[in-house]
């Protein structure tokens, strides 16, 4: 009779770091999926605190008029939009303006976007009259290659159509359009640094919308051929009819946080991530499971970060509570920097429009 000690022992297969990591990720994904199944997430986002459907400051109206007055001196319109929301928030006035000049549509911040449905995105854009699409990430070092490809694209598009009153000009003028804080100024500076080998910033750059407030003078970005650009203020759609479109713009920082409320934006972030089963935020913020409760979520983030605010109590003395504003800022920064995973906020729009 053979005993257990007589049986040949199996040599365990070696597990390298990659295998272990993959198994851990699969295990965590399974846990998250089961946890999500047990929870009932919201199917609709209810927005009832502030109005984001009308945000068209005076400088935007002034900027639009300045842009229209300079069109006769422009050879190419370059519209820059956020790759995470290729459709949401595009200003319809741009489309009216674009009819008179060649148009290049650039989806910036491609490193933050889930572009697995890129073919569908481009198909829908073509239905909306957008034929020329490129993808960029102005802040990434390896983007130099893309920037070098863009200048030939400029030249090709300009020379493909009649230049009318500018037919005898040897230089090219470009106008850069887009919603606020989409990366227009960063894009201009990236081209300039790549083509002219110049450091510094020719135009102001900021992490909040509204830095550029007027159409500036021409900025030279290339010598061969000579190319100049007009930077412009971010122009928002003056009538955002769909509240969720407004929330997408706010989540991508195209609206100033205080106009909507940081905690409201975080609430929408949770709603969207849960709805699309993107649970990277659970590990990132050291949660035990997904949550659909923004109050509990912000309290957890504040506790983890040690964010406590001190306030005077009505009855005298002081009271302490978790600082939700600071926690909201942390959460939004993580989302906007791609730490919670790549996203395509217009996925439902794409699926509903493309047939």
Structure characteristics:
alpha/beta, 6-stranded mixed sheet, two-stranded antiparallel ribbon, Rossmann fold, Conserved Hypothetical Protein Ylqf, Chain: A, domain 2, 2 domains, about 350 residues
Protein model, in words:
This protein is α/β, with parallel strands linked by helices and 355 residues long. It folds into two domains: 58-230, P-loop containing nucleotide triphosphate hydrolases (Rossmann fold, 3-Layer(aba) Sandwich), CATH 3.40.50.300; 261-353, Conserved Hypothetical Protein Ylqf, Chain: A, domain 2 (Orthogonal Bundle). The chain has 13 helices and eight strands. Helix 4 (118-127) links the parallel strand 2 (103-108) and strand 3 (133-135). It is elongated.
Outline of this structure?
Plays a role in the regulation of the mitochondrial ribosome assembly and of translational activity. Displays mitochondrial GTPase activity. It is built from 13 helices and 8 strands. It has 355 residues and is α/β, with parallel strands linked by helices.
